[in-house]
Amino acid sequence: MHIELRKLKVVPALSQETTCYTAEIWIDGSRAFLASNRGHGAADDFHATGSVTTAEVDAWLAATREPSRIGDSVRAHCLEFEVGDLITRIEETKRLRRQCATRLIVIDGGEVHAYALKGRSAAVVAASVQRRSPGIRIVNGDDAAIDEAVSLMIAAARQEPAG
């Protein structure tokens, strides 16, 4: 089952306890649900537009994804958690692409680092950084590297203790 979000609109100004958003959820190439959350801490709203039910999707996700941790509790992965993960990935990808305009983003030893361009071209900064660390991977302009960098950043954020 391939799950993706389309027409995602996040409204940060209305996001209080949860992310305020609207989106279409597509499963295996067909629109399956309209999804939304008003940002006040309630659960996501899913309105079926296809033949797939949330129970079917939840059962598939519980069987194929690692359980989700919320504080000290562990819960089966469900559509709401999957949508949250997809929103995080989409928003982090947008943020990283914006940073590429003013910074050189690299992956070095499984960590993501940024170097300010300060009016220089990304190629000049990249050459300088590569002289010091020849094993780095340049993220700017490389979609696969952007995906990898986002995955690394999300994984690192999940490992940080809540404070």
How far is the first residue's CA from the last residue's CA?
Answer: 36 Å
Overall, the morphology is elongated
SS summary, helix count: 4
Spatial strand sequence of the major β-sheet: 1-2-3-4
Helix content: 25-40%
Report strand %.
25-35%
Mean of pLDDT: 91
Could you list the spans in which at least 5 consecutive residues all have pLDDT below 50? none
Order of helices and strands: EEEEHEEHEEHEH
Q: Radius of gyration in whole Å, from Cα?
A: 19 Å
Overall number of strands: 9
Largest sheet: number of strands, sense, barrel closure: 4 strands, antiparallel
Q: Helix- and strand-based class? A: alpha+beta
Describe the structure in your own words.
The protein is α+β, with helices and mostly antiparallel strands. Helix content is 37%, strand content 29%. The strands form 3 sheets. It has a 4-stranded antiparallel beta sheet with strand order 1-2-3-4, covered by helices on one side. The longest helix has 21 residues, at 79-99. The mean pLDDT is 91.
